[in-house]
Amino acid sequence: MLTKDSYLKLSNCIRVLAADAVEHAKSGHPGMPLGMADVMTSLAFDFLRFNPNDPLWFNRDRLVLSAGHGSMLLYAFYYLTGYTNFTIFDLKNFRKLHSKTPGHPEYDAYQAIETTTGPLGQGFANAVGMAIAAKKYQHVLGNKISNYKIYCIVGDGCLMEGISYEAASLAGHLGLDNLIVLFDDNQISIDGKTSLAVSEDHLGVFTALGWGVNAIDGHDFTQISSSLNQAQNTNKPQLIACRTLIAKGCTNKAGSETAHGSPLGGTEIKLLKTQLQMPDAAFEIPEELRATWKTAWQRNKSNYETWQNHYAQLSPTAQEYLAPVKINTDFLNNIQLATQPESTRVSSGRVIQELLKMSTKVICGSADLSFSNNIKNSLSVVITKDDFSGNFIHYGVREHAMAAIMNGLALSGFLPIGGTFFVFVDYMKPAVRLSAMMRQQVIYIMTHDSIGVGEDGATHQPIEQLAGMRAIPNLQVLRPADCAETIECWQIAISDHTRPHMLVLTRQNVPQIKASLDWRNTSLGAYVISAIAPQLDVNSNFDVCIFATGSEVQLALNAAETLTVVDNLKVQVISIPCFELFFRQDQQYINSIILKSTKLCVAIEAGCAFGWHQIIGINGIFFGINQFGVSAPAEVAYEHFTLTTENIVNAIKTKLCDL
């Protein structure tokens, strides 16, 4: 154990590196790293299990910086402890293009960064997912392989965001005793003192949520050590409120909101280094302190070596369990296609039932809609406080936390599948965005996808959500038309490990269009599902091309049949289960689907028109909904919005006459 004076000198290394890096970048957040430096130092030297030479060691403790603006706290730790391929040049590149040290931690910027944080509270919920994952590994492989902790550093802002309380509530309910949250309780936010907007008793709230709590002086090394010791062996998740001074060590800015999000300035940094008795030169740390920091991990060396021996004794199957999940999709060929009208949520549910047989690393869950989403079945085993052997999480009505917890599960090597009504994706969007940013394989089951919801009315009928989700880079939104397309979309979602997928599914029954599976066409994102015309040949130019998704594909086929049989027109119908896949095809294929020779392009989708005109052109016709829905039976709602075969046919014929 180091002396108090030694701890202080070591934590001052974090302070000056954070101040210098922010000053060098001419932007950043120095206050939080300066305030939490003492806590970080105690954690690094006495508690955190890590090996800088093997940043991805499976049994390492996970360190999640939910208060991502304080990223220099993390980066200074990486540098000082000697993390592989992380140097002083990375600190000097703080906030520079393509650096390992972006303004907020990013999962793929450097291998030791556990998750992308920045939007406050996301890291907190990610940590809950990681804690559940650790319990799962522990159940399957035992304590010798999985007994790591999850440490999460949060700030006042994280605890103002609702997602933190959603996640904390579930963590307390599940008794996640491997989760330790360190609260930087500096009572400062961007606008000033937190008393401007906050007056609750944080410890009282977390106690009520089933957590163990402790309040300490975040600059008293004895209290820091004692609280972390107490947190090691409990039966509850732990919150340690560390009362700190933002920008501690600064002469003029300590305790002030002015130190939160701006460089300290040259004069203030000079005063800081004088007070801390550190060298004046930027990024300079005394050699004896650097050498001591490099020893911080040595207490973990024997543990690391012992773990490697235990790992080597595992069976190949057990070793494989530690790797990210990969599932052979051949089982999809054996799922019986529906022959009668069936909602795509039901078709999806039959896939999920078979998928659960393929791997115990599939973790399903729902935001209190498990049977409505058809995501829970006879093979589902609920994860509880006393038993983590299951494969299903009851998230409760906590959509936002559910999505972020799923990110934590995916980052830990599991395949999370979570469901709710599509209209509630608005509650989940920040976490969905991050799963796309981190390229994590997360599967979202969004049912009740249109005005087909019917009597529940405008509040429950998604109108703009398809366009909103399609706008998220790297998220693939899949809206299948029938049972066969649903299975085909599942094949895409299971096979692609580089991004999240969102299956958007009907509540109402839809007719079966395809009698067999067709992997290739669906994987192209858009394909001709029907081309009908009198004496049609390969050289024919179409009068009308109708594009549609989901439940509206059948409507497009009905309109095409009428236009062909009654009006003798040449009509092609294109199903577009996935915009993103389609627009990643080569230009030749895109041109073969969006034919310039077609007289009129039409799109049908029970949602808003945004995004569709890149397919149908400015002169095309869109049949959809550009206002909020209505409370009425589904068929009445479709009639109200003129989404019927008769209305579509008449509008197309009128437009053709005007051309």
Automatic annotation (TrEMBL):
Pfam families: Transket_pyr, Transketolase_C_1, Transketolase_N. Keywords: Calcium, Magnesium, Membrane, Metal-binding, Thiamine pyrophosphate, Transferase, Transmembrane, Transmembrane helix. It comes from the Bacteria. InterPro entries: THDP-binding, Transketo_C/PFOR_II, Transketolase-like_C_2, Transketolase-like_Pyr-bd, Transketolase_bac-like, Transketolase_BS, Transketolase_CS, Transketolase_fam. Residues 342-512 form the Transketolase-like pyrimidine-binding domain. The keyword Transmembrane helix applies. Its cofactor is Mg(2+); Ca(2+); Mn(2+); Co(2+). Its EC number is 2.2.1.1. It catalyses: D-sedoheptulose 7-phosphate + D-glyceraldehyde 3-phosphate = aldehydo-D-ribose 5-phosphate + D-xylulose 5-phosphate. The chain crosses the membrane at residues 401-425. It is an enzyme of class 2 (transferase). Homodimer. Belongs to the transketolase family. Catalyzes the transfer of a two-carbon ketol group from a ketose donor to an aldose acceptor, via a covalent intermediate with the cofactor thiamine pyrophosphate. NCBIfam families: tktlase_bact. This is Transketolase.
